[in-house]
Specification:
By secondary structure, the protein is of the alpha/beta class. The protein is built from four helices and five strands; from the N terminus they run βαβαβαββα. Strands 1-3-2-4-5 form a five-stranded mixed sheet, covered by helices on one side. Strand 2, helix 2 and strand 3 form a beta-alpha-beta unit. The longest helix is centred in the middle third of the chain and has 16 residues.
Length: 114
């Protein structure tokens, strides 16, 4: 599994599609996923991304998508993202964990394991 970059619009469209196909308008059981918010010139973001790539290559993990925070005004405001790097773990489209400090590969692995 690898880290794939998506746009905010792509993620919002996928979330809307999941809602439309859910019975009674409820969020379907899409499971867990994570969104990794970064900026291109952030050195800490680059280091965190390398750690994420190690975790993703080391075994089964939940899907992780990367977004540039400069182009995510809706999600940035909705989830009150204060800085980057920021890793948000979602359960059925709802944030359940928001981390700014990617301390180690071990920590990331624990948060992202299936």
């Amino acid at each position: 599994m690898s880290l794939r970059e998506i746009t905010e619009q792509e993620w919002l469209m996928q979330a809307e599609k999941r809602r439309e196909t859910a019975p009674d308008g409820k969020e379907p059981g899409t499971g867990r996923e994570a969104l990794f918010f970064v900026t291109t010139l952030c050195g800490t973001c680059q280091l965190a991304e390398k750690m994420l790539e190690i975790v993703l290559a080391s075994g089964p993990c939940i899907p992780v998508s990367k977004l540039n925070i400069n182009f995510t005004p809706i999600l940035r405001e909705r989830w009150r993202i204060a800085s980057v790097p920021c890793l948000i773990v979602l359960e059925d489209g709802v944030p359940v964990r928001q981390e700014y400090a990617m301390r180690s590969v071990v920590d990331l692995s624990e948060w992202l394991r299936v």
